[in-house]
Task: inverse folding
C-alpha cells in the first residue's frame, strides 16, 4: 500500500525490459525505495535492468518469466509477484510490438503476432492484474496505450488498431473498478524516442522515455484517468478525431 505521503511501495512491470516501463519503474521506485518485480521474456536483459533500478533507489528487485502470448500463465505471474512483494501498488502493462506496416500488410504472421501481443495478451494480463487489485482494495493498473489508437491512420493501421482496442478495453476496465479502491490509468504517448523507434523519423512533439515516466508519476499523484504525453497532444488529437473521413484520408499523419 502507498505510504503516508502517497509514494508507491511495490511495482510490477509486465514487460520487464521495456525502455519506457523501466523508466517508469525507476521514477516511482526511487523516492521511497519501493520493491519492484520485473516480468518479461529475456532474463539476461532483466538482470541488467535490476542493477539500474537499484541504482535508482529501489529497495529490492525481483524477476519473473512472463510472455504476453502465454495467457494461461498470467494469473500465476500475478500471484508470484504478490508472493515476492505483497500487495501491488502499481502494475504497469508495458509490453508490446511495433511491427512493420509494409511487411505485415504484405503477408506472414506479423499482423497476428502484433494483435496477440498488443491486444489479446494485454487483455489477459490486465484482467488478471485487475482481479488482484480489486481483491486487495487498492492499487493502480497503468496501461501504456498510444495516440496511434486515438484515430487509426493508414500508415500504421495494424499497430494503431491494436492500441485502439487496448485503449477501449482499458477504459471499460477502469469503469468496472469504480468503487473497488482499485483503478486504471491510461497513458497515451505520442512518438517516443527509444531503441524500438531508432531509425524512424521522429514526429512533432516527440518525447523521451523519461518524459513519459515523469508524466506517469504526476498522473498517479493526481489520480488522473488518462495521461497524454506531451499534454498538447490531447488538443491535437481532438482536432484529428473530428476530421471528416474524406479529409483525414488525404492528410499525411
Result:
Amino acid at each position: 500500500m502507498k505510504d503516508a505521503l502517497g509514494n508507491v511501495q511495490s511495482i510490477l512491470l509486465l514487460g520487464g525490459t521495456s525502455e519506457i516501463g523501466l523508466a517508469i519503474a525507476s521514477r516511482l521506485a526511487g523516492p521511497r525505495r519501493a520493491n519492484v518485480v520485473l516480468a518479461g521474456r529475456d532474463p539476461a536483459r532483466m538482470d541488467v535492468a535490476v542493477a539500474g533500478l537499484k541504482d535508482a533507489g529501489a529497495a529490492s528487485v525481483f524477476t519473473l518469466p512472463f510472455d504476453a502470448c502465454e495467457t494461461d500463465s498470467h494469473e500465476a505471474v500475478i500471484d508470484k509477484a504478490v508472493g515476492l512483494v505483497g500487495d501491488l501498488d502499481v502494475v504497469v502493462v508495458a509490453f508490446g510490438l511495433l511491427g512493420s506496416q509494409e511487411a505485415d500488410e504484405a503477408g506472414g504472421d506479423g499482423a497476428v503476432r502484433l494483435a496477440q501481443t498488443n491486444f489479446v495478451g494485454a487483455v489477459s494480463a490486465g484482467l488478471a492484474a485487475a482481479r488482484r487489485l480489486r481483491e486487495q482494495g487498492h492499487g493502480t493498473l497503468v496501461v501504456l496505450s498510444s495516440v496511434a489508437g486515438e484515430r487509426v491512420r493508414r500508415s500504421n493501421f495494424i499497430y494503431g488498431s491494436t492500441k485502439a482496442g487496448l485503449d477501449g478495453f482499458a477504459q471499460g476496465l477502469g469503469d468496472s473498478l469504480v468503487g473497488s479502491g482499485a483503478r486504471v490509468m491510461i497513458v497515451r504517448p505520442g512518438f517516443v524516442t527509444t531503441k524500438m523507434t531508432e531509425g524512424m523519423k521522429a514526429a512533432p512533439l516527440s518525447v523521451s522515455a523519461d518524459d513519459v515516466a515523469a508524466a506517469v508519476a504526476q498522473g498517479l499523484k493526481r489520480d488522473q484517468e488518462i495521461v497524454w504525453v506531451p499534454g498538447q497532444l490531447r488538443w491535437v488529437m481532438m482536432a484529428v478525431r473530428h476530421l471528416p473521413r474524406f479529409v483525414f484520408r488525404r492528410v499525411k499523419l
